[in-house]
Every structure is written in structure tokens, then in C-alpha cells.
User: Fold this.
Amino acid sequence: GNSVTQMEGPVTLSEEAFLTINCTYTATGYPSLFWYVQYPGEGLQLLLKATKADDKGSNKGFEATYRKETTSFHLEKGSVQVSDSAVYFCALSVPNTGGFKTIFGAGTRLFVKA
Amino acid sequence: DTGVSQDPRHKITKRGQNVTFRCDPISEHNRLYWYRQTLGQGPEFLTYFQNEAQLEKSRLLSDRFSAERPKGSFSTLEIQRTEQGDSAMYLCASSDSLWDSSYEQYFGPGTRLTVT
Assistant:
């Protein structure tokens, strides 16, 4: 079946540290891949996406590359800030009845200390 | 546009009672989704609508759950005879793309249900 596995949290980093949150997936066909972020007290919002192999999604200093050979979509940022503290969800979309369906990972909570 | 809104934001109910949640999507978005999220987990798909048509229901959605989108705009999710296991955050999302796998979903803030 289709699934997403991401590293367990929480991840605690100091400001300006390098961030990696691992995400691997299982899917039939060629899914689109996403990272969503949920800041405290807010709804989920799209952070970045990639639609085909070797595509790189980027936004707000975050990057992730669609790696078909390793079925991965790891999230990276070179220098995190306190404001990046949030829960990050890796997700994929697959064809489904009448369109597409999105499957989310369990989420990884990030704490950034000043 | 004010985004996706959900009402109420919090609901506390006693076991056995019925509850109804409302979701107002971004106007003109033809697709609307309901998810359930429990602590430490990602959103789990419950059901979705394309305009007023309910296209799929997850096996998570027992007979006690029903969802409607009568005019293709707002949607309601009703849970009958609530159980403690129904306690969760119920999320609504909308999108405007039918056939593009890279569509972005816009999420509401959620309704937190506590069943005592």
C-alpha cells in the first residue's frame, strides 16, 4: 500500500544549526511529494512540494529533493531559526477515486532554542 | 479570502451524544476533505467531496459518521452516539484542482473534540 515514514521527534536544535528531517515513502506509480508545516495554534500549510524524480522543492530556506531510487524526500535547512519551531509533515498524493488522495506521515516536532 | 474556517474550534461532549462540525472552504474551491488527527499522528483521511458529491469514505468512517456538502459550498461532519475513541482533532481542507497530483490543500484550524 501507500505510506509515508518520517523520523520520530522531537528534534531539538540550537539556532543556526543544520536541520535534516528524514522521510521515506512507499507508493505505486509516481506520486507527488509534499512537506506541510504546522506552527503552534495554526492549521497545516504547504511548505514545499516536488512532482517528479530529481525535482527539488524549496521555500523559506527549506529544501527537499525527490529521490526515486531511494524513495526519499528528506527536508533540510542550512540554518534554523527559533521561528522554525513547528511540526513538519511529509506527505504524498496518489491517484484515487475521482482524482488524488493525500497520505501524511506522523509528523516530526522541531524545537529550536535561542 | 479568509481561508478555510471551522466551527466550533473546541467541543466537549458526553459519551453517547451527537455532535456536528462545520467547515467553510475557500470560496470556489471544488474539492473538500475531512481528516482526523490524534496526538502524535498525521492527518488521517476520512472523506472528500468534489462539489456536492461525496467521492470516497475511508474505512475509518464508521456508520456513526456522516458528512454532507449540500450545495457544494460548506460541509458538515456529524458523529452520532459519540465514543471516547472519537476524541481527536477534526481537520477540514479544500483545494481547487481536480486532476493535478501536485495540488495544494488549504487547511482550516481544526475542531478539537473531547468525549468524556
Remarks:
- The radius of gyration of chain B is 14 Å.
- Chain B touches chain A at residues 4, 31, 33, 40-45, 48, 50, 53, 55-56, 91, 93, 98-110 (CB under 8 Å).
- The longest strand of chain B covers residues 88-95.
